[in-house]
Each structure stands twice: as C-alpha cells, then as structure tokens.
C-alpha cells in the first residue's frame, strides 16, 4: 500500500469511527454540540464580527496600505514582513483567533504580500484576545483577574518571540527582498498616496463594499462555528470511548518529568483539542498548584487547539499559503509561552500582592488592581450576543436573497 492509499485508508477509518460513535452516543453528541453552539452563538460570533467587517472595509478603502507604508521600517527589520503586517498583528491581538489568518489570507489575495511573507505573518498574528484571556479564563474559570495579567504577558510576549524566530523561515527567498519594500517612503504624503491609489483601484460603491464585508465576515464565522461544534463533539466522543484516557497514560509521563500533577493529563489533552474546555478542566484540578495550572493553561492557550488549527487551515486553503509553518509556529509558541509563564510567576506574584490573594492592593500595577469591568463586558456580550448573532444572520440572508434574485427572473 503506497502513501496515498494509506492516507485515504486512515481518513476513511477516522470518519467511519466518528460516525459510528455518533450513532452509539447520540445524547452525548447532542449535548456537546449544543455546548459548542452556545459558545459560538453567545460569544464568538458577536465578538469577532465587528473586527471582521471593519477589517474588510479598512482594506477596501486603502487604510491598511496607508498603515503599511508607515510601519514598513518597523515590521521589515524585526519580522521580515511588509508594514501591513503591523495592522494584522494589532487586529489579531484585539479580536483573537482566527482573525490573523483571515486578514493574512485577504492581504495575500490582494497581492499586498508574497506567499512566504504571508507564512511568516500568519505564524505570529493569530492570538487569543484580551477579553477571552481576562474574562473567560482568568475571571470565569480561575476567579482571579490577576491571573489574566500573567497569561496575557506570557501569551503576547511569546507571540512576538515566535515572530522574530519565524523571520528566518525561507530567509533567502528572493521574492521577499524587493517586493513591497517601501522603506524609503516614510512620509505621510507617500502613505496617503498609497491609500488613495488603493481606494481608486477599488471602484465599488460604499453600499456594495459594506454588503460584501458583511457577507464575507458571516461566511467565515459560520465556518468557524461549524469547527467549534465538530471539535466539541469529537472531544466528548474521545472521552467516552476511553481514547482520551489511553493518551493520558503517556501524557502523565511528560507531566511527571516536569514535576507537575499527573491529574492535569486529561485537561491538557482536552486543551489540545479545544482551549475553553481545557482551561475549565485545568482550573478544577485541586491536586495541582495554581502555578502548575497557569503554566499549563498558557501552554495550550498558545497552541490554540486543533479546533483553531482546522479553522486556519480552511482559511489558508483558499490561497497558496502553506499550513505547515503555522503549525510549527504554534508548537514553538506553546513551549515559549509556558516558559514565560514560569519565569514571570515569581516577579508578578510579588508585584501584584500574590496571585492567591484576589482582593489585595497592587502598588506597582495600581491601574490593573480592579479588573471587574472585564467581567462585566464579558457578561454583557453573553447576554446580548445571541441578539447580535440573529440580527446579522438575518442581514446575511437578505444580502444573499438580493444577490440571487436577478437569477431567479
């Protein structure tokens, strides 16, 4: 059996196993599906949609080209990507997974970056947003907003470190040296010229551009929702058929070498598939110290879970950007973020008045001592999120109807 046939056999076997498992455990599959749908419906869709729409409009109106000229002297020497990478990095941090991949793919389709530059860029611009780190994980699971400070620092510093490392990816590739190199154009005048040229080139009227932005954003979010549901079900199924327990026996060896509680093996595997469930299970392990819980959470938060990997792979499949560099970068980020969490624990524990003490004052980080507003924002999104989701799904349906109506006549 050659490699291609073996690959076909493996994929067919996995799909068959998954299908049979759904038939045997329909109730568990339904519960896991509803759990994934609830997370997408309440949080993911309403929190990502505004960033997706605004990003599409900024690209269409040439604002990203304007930013690209200004950020070229910063992004090119450090990360060896064009200045537009600064926009992707900022939006990726602000909105979370998988915004970095979507924006990188969009810039590649616009031919504003080369394929190699896109592979470097996507490797360090996919990150979790602060609202998820502070609201869902720190406050929601650990009930301690101070933990969010440590997780955020480890996560974002790790991402920047990965970007510096990935600048050596295909370092000698000839396309990168001159393409999009506007390092000599440092004035606002040149930046505005780039903005104007992009806007003129995109001759769509405002209404058409806005409609396309909404349509493209909702399509991407529907795809993301499907992956969240599928991996939520898969994670539950693997636990029911004891595959997770079998894998856990090997993971415990790795944890024992690090002197971590072996009870963290199941949460680690769950986080490998889906971050939210992994963080929740990690926070509930009473036999592990808080330091161990935070380091492990930082590890799989950086890896971002196979669910996000599948989302990114689906987005990149529409371009010539390879997925392997992204996957390699996620592994590097996972270990680097875990190391940063370990190194930052002691100094931040001292400056924040102790992670175990959630009510103490913080003389050094005084502005961050009260992070309850993040919890309020997160709760507001979960309350009004379904309404926002339903509203834009209706708008998306109306746009589709308007586009198809001429063909029905």
From TrEMBL:
InterPro entries: Gate_dom, Spore_IM_YlbJ. Pfam families: Gate. Residues 43-141, 221-317 form the Nucleoside transporter/FeoB GTPase Gate domain. The keyword Transmembrane applies. It comes from the Bacteria. Keywords: Membrane, Transmembrane, Transmembrane helix. The chain crosses the membrane at residues 9-28, 48-71, 78-97, 131-157, 209-231, 294-315, 327-345, 381-401. This is Sporulation integral membrane protein YlbJ. It comes from Sutcliffiella cohnii. The lineage of its organism: Bacteria, Bacillati, Bacillota, Bacilli, Bacillales.
